[in-house]
Amino acid sequence: MAFTTLSQLYVTAPILSDCSLRKSSPLKTSNVSFYFEKRAAAFALKSNTKNIGSGRRVDRKIVCAVPRQGLALARKSAVSPIELEEALRPPTNLYTDAAPHTVTVLKVEKITGSNALGETYHVVFDHRGFLPHWEGQVFGVMPPPDNPFEPGDATKLSYFSAASTRYGEFFDGRTTDLCVRLVPGTTSEIICNSKPGDKFQVTGPTREAMLLGDYSPNVKHIFVATGTGVAPARANIRRFFKEDIPNFEYSGLAWLFLGVANQDSLLYDREFKQYLSDYPENFRYDYALSREETNKSGGKKYVQDTFKDHADEVFDLLQIGAYIYLSGRKEMVEPIKDVLKDVAEKEGLKWEEVFANWKRKSQWRVEVY
Fold it and tell me: Of 11 and 315, which is predicted with more confidence?
């Protein structure tokens, strides 16, 4: 149950020291009103009752603390249409370069700080419910015909992983989020400089490397990302901890390793830290800042260095069935494999057999550039 399904609710309640509530009928009374607002961190009760106990008039507000889990639930949002849960396979190649779908820009928000090395934007497209996708899939964005940088044809498609769940930015199944780094002279610059109301033609969804290996709610998932490669991880983590999905309550472990240049380059950092606060038993978040931190050898600290600090634990998780997803810069892949190989050999195992077993079970999932 998510408390955010209503914006205000009234019930009668005795004014007790433990702030317990007794639901009554009808819901609205003239005695005590109990209400909450979306994302509220506490419940408030306001009493206008004239006579309580000794007959003194009471007109006061009592704030009741909510257990941590209650806070987490209060931050979840109802989703629709629930029919999006019924598909047995992800939708694939619904639109092609020969027959793309036109989307409308709803929002373009810069999500990196002033000291970041480059600019990254969170872009929301309105597809009116005609572009369903699963978390981890990719879209192709066609440059407009008047693109000043590249010919406006399908040979110049730019591909972006969805940063949203199948329910989109507003949990209604009508939008798709992209995480776009502005690269001057490319379609990404046009996207990042677009404004609400602008149109783009989109192909897809496509690719399956970043789809979850197992959709059971108790599975462990390890995400390793650099820069905008965090998009598929963000989509899945948002599904786990932000959305109130009927018959799905995530009880596994999601662990995100993120590598960026500096603090101002962190993407969706506040969001991830909120999940960490709300779900400390189910979410872990570690990042590396290559321009601000050094590794144990005195060099720049990359995401593979942070990963190495936890390699033994990650290895054990993989050995009992966890899935690992690598997305972003290809330079991180071999160092991460080397770290895990060292752990395998330290435990007296043959790395080639261990790695082959992970791949056979689709536990090792990679999409890099």
Answer: 315
Q: How many CA atoms lie within 13 Å of 39's alpha carbon, on the beta-carbon side?
A: 2
Q: Which two tokens stand for residue 296?
A: 């144990």
SS3 156: helix
What pTM did the predictor assign? 0.80
Count the neighbouring beta carbons within 10 Å of the beta carbon of residue 243: 18
Give per-residue burial for 88-120: e unless 16+ CB within 10 Å, then b.
eebbeebbeeeebbebebbebeebbeeebeebb
Counts for the chain of helices (H) and strands (E), in that order: 8, 16
Any idea what DSSP says for residue 83?
A: G
Which two tokens mark 138?
A: 């990719």
Query: Of 308, 211, 208, 214, which Cα lies nearest the Cα of 252?
Result: 214
Q: Which SS3 state, helix, strand or coil, does residue 262 take?
A: coil
Sign, CA dihedral 133-135-137-142, equals: positive
E runs forming strands in 36-113 = 43-47, 60-64, 77-78, 101-110
> What phi and psi, each to the nearest 5 degrees, are found at residue 366?
-135, 135
* pLDDT per residue as tens digits for the range 80-132: 999 999 999 999 999 999 999 999 999 999 999 999 999 999 999 999 999 99
Measure the CA–CA gap between 218 and 251, rounded to whole angstroms: 5
Q: Is 349 helix (H, G, I), strand (E, B) or coil?
A: coil
The pair of structure tokens assigned to 199 is 């149109």
Structure tokens at 88: 């047995």
> 294 has which bridge partners?
300
Q: Which residues contact 107 (CB under 8 A, 6 or more apart)?
A: 122, 123, 124, 169, 196
